[in-house]
Fold this protein.
Amino acid sequence: MDNSTPKILILGVGNILLKDEGVGVRAVERLQRDYKFPPNVEIIDGGTAGFGLIDLLEGAEHLIIVDAVQGNDEPGSIYRFKFEDMPSSISKKFSPHQIGILETLILIKMLGKIPDTTIIAIQPKDCSNWGTELTPEIEDKIPNIVNLVINELRNLGVNELCV
């Protein structure tokens, strides 16, 4: 990757042991499986790392986060917003990992190193029961989430995607 090509990170976060809580990770797994990306695009399974992601995020110009959020809408509702424009109706205390990712972004912002950040999120149905499978309502939305991420990449000038 040359210095003129912006580094773009796609970060899937969530706990895959709590059903729909793992939707961000499952979505980036699908992206990795179905697409080949140019060298300046990196896909990261952030799991529940929180502050452990700081080093990974450093140097990125653009960050796309895929996650589950509590937005008080119907399960399967999909949101897209910039980090700085996060709606107040989106709970910032949905789960331990999400507190970590939001605090991580706030810390990076305080350090003056925050990338241009877009969040693609989905209202989960079940994050309180153990299980590694998404509920059918959320699993059915994975293609929509993947398409939103691909559109974000195209808006950032990434057109050389291979299916």
The longest strand covers residues 41-47.
